[in-house]
UniProtKB/TrEMBL annotation, chain A:
SMART domains: AAA (SM00382). The keyword ATP-binding applies. It comes from Acidocella aromatica. It comes from the Bacteria. GO terms for molecular function: ATP binding; ATP hydrolysis activity. Residues 4-238, 257-500 form the ABC transporter domain. Pfam families: ABC_tran. InterPro entries: AAA+_ATPase, ABC_carbohydrate_import_ATPase, ABC_transporter-like_ATP-bd, ABC_transporter-like_CS, P-loop_NTPase. Signal peptide: none annotated. This is Simple sugar transport system ATP-binding protein. Keywords: ATP-binding, Nucleotide-binding, Sugar transport, Transport.
Automatic annotation (TrEMBL), chain B:
This is Simple sugar transport system permease protein. The keyword Transmembrane helix applies. InterPro entries: ABC_transp_permease. It is a multi-pass membrane protein. It comes from Acidocella aromatica. PANTHER family: ABC TRANSPORTER, PERMEASE PROTEIN, GUANOSINE ABC TRANSPORTER PERMEASE PROTEIN NUPP. It comes from the Bacteria. Pfam families: BPD_transp_2 (PF02653).
Length: 500, 356
C-alpha cells in the first residue's frame, strides 16, 4: 500500500529552482532513506510533503488520493509530521508548554497533567529524559531535537519525516533512535529519513532514494542492494575521493592556547565549568569529544570571551588573553560556532557585509571612515570563488544559502587574516560528503600552517580522523588528553559516561 | 473554488519597496482627503490649503521650513537609534535637556561671549546625549527596557524645566516664567526668508553626518550587525555595547540640538513651549524615511507642511488641532499596511480537497 506518491514536483525560490521534477514514493511500514548533497532538494521536497511549501507544479497523493497541503496544519491533519533540521520550537517556553502548544488540540488533552502523563509515557518508551519545566532555548541542541521528535509523535503522525535526525545525536543515542524508527515503521507507519550518513541508510533503511540537483536519480531502490560506494557515486555524480593524505610532520609550538583551572557558574539549565585544564599546541588539532550539553557551549563562550568566569586563566601564546571578544579576535582567535545562523552569521545582511565585517573591527581595521560597497563586493567575490560557495552573490542575504554553503562562507570569513587559534564547534554537522571534506581539509591546512585548532565535536569518527590528541568533556570537566594513537573508541565511550 | 495564499517573501525587490511606500502614502493621502471632506472642506479648499498655501505661498513655505528644522533633527534622532534597534520614545525629554543645557551658557556666562552660540550648540548636544545615553546604559547594565526609560525621562526633563522656569531662571524683570532674552551673539541668524534661521544648516549638516555614519563608516556596518544578530555580533568581535551606547547617545544629541535650534532660532529665550508634540512626529518621520538619514529630511519637510496646512485649517475652518495628528496617524497606518505587501506575497490558487 502506497502511503505517499510525489511526482514531477517543481519548486523555485524567486528565480532559483530547487526542484526540477522530483519524484518520491513511500510505502506504509517502511523506513525510506532520502539522500543527497546539501542543496540537492531533499529538504525542499519533504517540506512540500509536510505543507511548509506549496509546489509550483507536480502532483501529490496520500493513501492513493490526490492532495495538496496549503499549511503544515493540513498536512498534520493527514498524519504527516516533520522534524526539521532547524527546529521549530518556541525558545522562551518550557518543554511541556511546547508540547502542549503543538499537540494539545490534536491529542485532545484538556489539562496540563494529561499532557505531562502522555509526555512521560512516550519519554519512557523512547528512553529520552527531558525535564518538562526546562526552558527550550537553554537546552542543548540534542535535547531540543529529542523534544521535536516527541512533538511529532504526540501529535499523532503516521507518516514521519526526519531531517538529519542523527546529526546531533551521539552514536549510542543515534542507534537507539534509529532502532525506534524501525519499530515505528514495523508497527504500520511510514518513515522518511533525510540523511547524509551512509550508516543510517545501510543499517536501518528498507529502501533508498537519492536526489541530485533537484531531481531524483535513484527512485526507491531496496537498500539491501546498495553499497557505500554506489550511493555516494549517485549523490555526487562521481566517486568521492578516498582518504585525505596524512598530514606531513611539522613542528609544534607549545602553549598557543592554554587554559588553567577555568571555572564558570552554570546559567539556568546549563552546565558549570569545573577547573578545566587545556593545552592546545600550535600545529595540532586537539579533539574534544563528548555528548552535547556537557559544557561544550559554555567552554566555547568562555574561550571567545562572552561568558563570565568564576576562576582560572586563559593564555594565548603564553600571555593572558585579552578580556573582550574583540581583543581576542585581534589576538588571532577564530571561531566556527555550532549554530551558524545563531552565533556566527547575520542572516538578514548581505553576504558581502558578513564577509567584510571582521575587517572593519579593532585597531588593525582595513577600513574605518569610508567603507565602499565595491571593496566589500570584491572581498565577497573572492571568498565565493576560493571557498566554492554555490548559489551565492555579494548582495544575497545569507539566510538564503544552504547549510553547506553557509558553512563555507563562515570558513571564508574566519580564516581570513592572521589566525593563531581556531575553535571549531561541530564544524561539519549536517553537511554533505563534499562539504565535510572541504571543511576538514581546511582544518588540516590551518593546523599545518601552525594554528592551534580546538575541534569540539559529537561525531567520534571526525574526532578520531582529524585529531592529534583527544580528550573527553563530560559534566563540565575535561579528561586528560591522550595521543589519538593510544585511545580506542570504547575507551572514549566509557570516558563520556564515567567522568563525573 | 479558489483561495488566497499569503506567503512570506524570501527577498523583496527594491523596486517593490519604493512602490509599496508610494502606494501607502497615496492611499494615506486619499483617506486623509476623504476624512477632511467629511469635516466640511470642499475639494478646492483642500487643494488650495495643502498645495497652494504650504508650498507656493511664501508665508506658508516659511512656516514649513522653519518647522522642518527641529523635526529633521528629532527624526534623525529616532532613526539613528533604530539603526541599533533602540526605540527612542524620548525625543521631547532630550530636546528639553538640550534646550536647558544651551540656556545655561548665557545665564551663567560660560565661555567667551563671541563663541557663545557654538558653546550652546555643544552644550545642547551634551545635554540631549546624556538624557538618552543614560537610558542606553540602563538597558545595557540593568536590562531596563528603553521604551519605558526614554518615555519616562520626557517627564523628568519637562518637570526640571518647569522647576527652573518658575524658580531660579524666572525672568527677573517681569517675573514671567521665561528666561531672560538671549543676546544677538547667542541667537541663530535669520536668513532673510521669513523666520527661517541658520539652524537649517545644522539640520542639513546633521543629516549628512548621519548618512555618512550609517552608510559609509564602519560604525554603520557594526550597527547593522548588532541590529541583525546581537549574539553573533559579540562573538565576531563587534563591541556591541559600545555601538548601542554610541548610537543612542548620538540620537539624544540630535534631539538636544533640536532644542538648541528652537531656543536660539525661534524663541531667543527658554520658554515653556519649546518641546511639545515632538514624540509622535519623530517616529512618523523616522518610519516614513525607513531610518534613512537623507530620507528623514524629505519626510520632515512633508510632516512640517502637514502642520502648516493644519494651522490654516484651524484658523479658517475651525478644525481642531488634533486633525493634523489624525492625518499623521492615517499616513503611518497606510505605510505600515504597505509594508505587509512588501513582506508577504499573495497568490490566488485553486484548492483541491484534502482527504484526512
Amino acid at each position: 500500500m502506497t502511503a505517499v506518491r510525489l511526482s514531477g514536483i517543481e519548486k523555485s525560490f524567486g528565480s532559483r529552482p530547487a526542484l526540477l521534477g522530483a519524484n518520491f514514493v513511500l510505502e506504509w511500514g517502511e523506513v525510506h532513506a532520502l539522500l543527497g548533497e546539501n542543496g540537492a532538494g531533499k529538504s525542499t521536497l519533504m517540506n512540500v510533503l509536510a505543507g511548509f511549501y506549496t509546489a509550483d507544479a507536480g502532483t501529490l497523493a496520500v493513501d492513493g488520493a490526490p492532495a495538496r497541503f496549503e499549511t503544515p496544519a493540513a498536512a498534520a491533519e493527514a498524519g504527516i509530521g516533520m522534524v526539521h533540521q532547524h527546529f521549530k520550537l518556541v525558545g522562551p517556553l518550557s518543554v511541556l508548554e511546547n508540547i502542549r502548544l503543538a499537540c494539545a488540540k490534536r491529542a485532545g488533552w484538556k489539562t496540563k497533567a494529561e499532557a505531562l502523563a502522555a509526555m512521560q509515557t512516550l519519554g519512557a518508551e523512547l528512553g529520552f529524559h527531558l525535564n518538562p519545566q526546562a526552558r527550550v532555548d537553554e537546552m542543548a541542541v540534542s535535547d531540543q531535537q529529542k523534544l521535536e521528535i516527541m512533538k511529532v509523535l504526540l501529535a499523532g503522525a503516521r507518516i514521519l519525516i526526519l531531517d538529519e535526525p542523527t546529526a546531533v545525536l551521539t552514536e549510542e543515542e543515534a542507534k537507539a533512535a534509529l532502532g525506534l524508527v524501525r519499530t515505528l515503521a514495523r508497527g504500520g507507519r511510514a518513515v522518511v529519513l533525510i540523511t547524509h550518513k551512509l550508516r543510517d541508510v545501510l543499517g536501518f533503511s528498507d529502501r533508498v532514494s537519492v536526489m541530485r540537483a533537484g531531481r531524483t536519480v535513484i527512485d526507491a531502490a531496496p537498500a539491501a542492494g546498495m553499497t557505500a560506494a554506489s550511493l555516494s557515486e549517485a549523490m555526487v555524480g562521481t566517486a568521492p575521493q578516498g582518504e585525505i593524505a596524512p598530514r606531513t610532520a611539522h613542528r609544534l609550538k607549545p602553549d598557543m592556547l592554554r587554559v588553567m583551572k577555568l571555572s564558570a557558574p552554570a546559567s539556568a539549565h546549563g552546565v558549570a565549568l569545573r577547573e578545566i585544564d587545556l593545552d592546545v599546541k600550535g600545529g595540532e588539532i586537539f579533539g574534544l569529544a563528548g555528548i552535547g550539553g556537557n559544557g561544550q557551549a559554555e567552554l566555547v563562550e568562555a574561550l571567545i570571551g562572552i561568558r563570565q568566569l568564576s576562576g582560572g586563566d586563559i593564555l594565548f601564546d603564553g600571555v593572558d588573553a585579552p578580556p573582550t571578544p574583540e581583543g581576542r579576535r585581534e589576538a588571532g582567535l577564530r571561531y566556527i560556532p555550532a549554530d551558524r545562523m545563531g552565533m556566527g552569521l547575520f542572516g538578514e545582511l548581505p553576504l558581502a557585509v558578513n564577509i567584510a565585517l571582521p575587517r572593519l573591527l579593532g585597531e588593525k581595521a582595513e577600513r574605518k571612515w569610508l567603507v565602499r560597497k565595491g571593496w566589500m563586493n570584491q572581498l565577497a567575490r573572492a571568498a565565493i570563488a576560493d571557498y566554492e560557495v554555490a548559489g551565492a552573490a555579494p548582495d544575497l542575504p545569507v539566510r538564503l544559502l544552504s547549510g553547506g554553503n553557509a558553512q563555507k562562507l563562515m570558513l571564508a570569513r574566519e580564516f581570513a587574516g592572521e589566525m593563531s587559534v581556531l575553535i571549531a564547534h561541530s564544524p561539519t554537522r549536517g553537511l554533505d560528503i563534499r562539504a565535510v571534506q572541504a571543511v576538514q581539509a581546511r582544518l588540516r591546512a590551518a593546523a599545518e600552517a601552525g594554528v592551534a585548532v580546538l575541534l569540539i565535536s559529537e561525531d567520534l569518527d571526525e574526532i578520531m580522523e582529524l585529531s592529534d590528541r583527544v580528550a573527553v568533556m563530560s559534566h563540565g570537566r575535561i579528561s586528560p588528553a591522550e595521543p589519538v594513537a593510544q585511545v580506542d573508541r570504547a575507551r572514549i565511550g566509557r570516558l563520556m559516561l564515567e567522568l563525573h | 473554488m479558489g483561495k488566497l495564499i499569503v506567503s512570506p517573501r524570501l527577498a523583496a525587490p527594491p523596486r517593490l519597496a519604493a512602490f509599496t511606500m508610494l502606494g501607502g502614502l497615496g492611499a494615506g493621502m486619499l483617506i486623509s482627503a476623504i476624512f477632511l471632506l467629511t469635516q466640511g472642506l470642499g475639494l478646492s479648499d483642500l487643494a488650495s490649503q495643502f498645495l497652494g498655501y504650504t508650498f507656493t505661498d511664501p508665508a506658508g513655505l516659511d512656516q514649513t521650513l522653519t518647522r522642518a528644522i527641529p523635526l529633521t533633527l528629532v527624526g534623525l534622532s529616532v532613526a539613528v537609534c533604530l539603526r541599533v534597534k533602540f526605540w527612542n520614545i524620548g525625543v521631547e525629554g532630550q530636546l528639553w535637556a538640550g534646550a536647558l543645557a544651551a540656556t545655561t551658557v548665557p545665564l551663567y556666562h560660560i565661555g567667551p561671549e563671541p563663541v557663545h552660540l557654538w558653546i550652546m550648540a555643544l552644550a545642547a548636544m551634551l545635554g540631549g546625549g546624556a538624557w538618552c545615553g543614560v537610558c542606553a546604559l540602563a538597558r545595557l547594565k540593568l536590562r531596563a527596557n528603553e521604551v519605558v526609560t526614554t518615555l519616562l525621562m520626557n517627564y523628568v526633563a519637562y518637570m526640571l524645566a518647569q522647576q527652573l522656569l518658575y524658580g531660579a531662571w524666572r525672568n527677573p524683570e517681569d517675573s514671567f516664567p521665561v528666561s531672560r532674552a538671549f543676546s544677538p551673539d547667542e541667537t541663530l541668524a535669520l536668513l532673510g526668508f521669513g523666520h527661517v534661521h541658520a539652524g537649517i544648516f545644522f539640520a542639513l549638516a546633521a543629516a549628512l553626518f548621519c548618512w555618512w555614519l550609517c552608510s559609509l563608516s564602519r560604525v554603520g556596518y557594526m550597527a547593522r550587525a548588532v541590529a541583525a544578530n546581537p549574539l553573533a555580533a559579540r562573538a565576531v568581535g563587534v563591541p556591541a555595547a559600545a555601538v548601542v551606547l554610541l548610537m543612542a547617545t548620538l540620537g539624544g544629541a540630535l534631539s538636544g540640538l533640536a532644542g538648541f535650534t528652537i531656543v536660539c532660532g525661534e524663541e531667543h529665550k527658554l520658554t515653556q513651549f519649546i518641546g511639545n508634540d515632538y514624540i509622535f512626529p519623530s517616529i512618523v518621520i523616522a518610519y516614513l524615511a525607513r531610518t534613512s538619514p537623507l530620507g528623514v529630511v524629505v519626510a520632515a519637510v512633508a510632516v512640517a507642511a502637514l502642520y502648516t496646512a493644519g494651522d490654516s485649517l484651524k484658523a479658517f475652518y475651525q478644525l481642531p488641532g488634533a486633525t493634523v495628528l489624525t492625518i499623521q496617524a492615517i499616513l503611518l497606518l497606510c505605510v505600515c499596511c504597505g509594508e505587509f505587501l512588501l513582506r508577504y506575497r499573495m497568490d490566488w490558487v485553486k484548492t483541491v480537497k484534502v482527504r484526512a
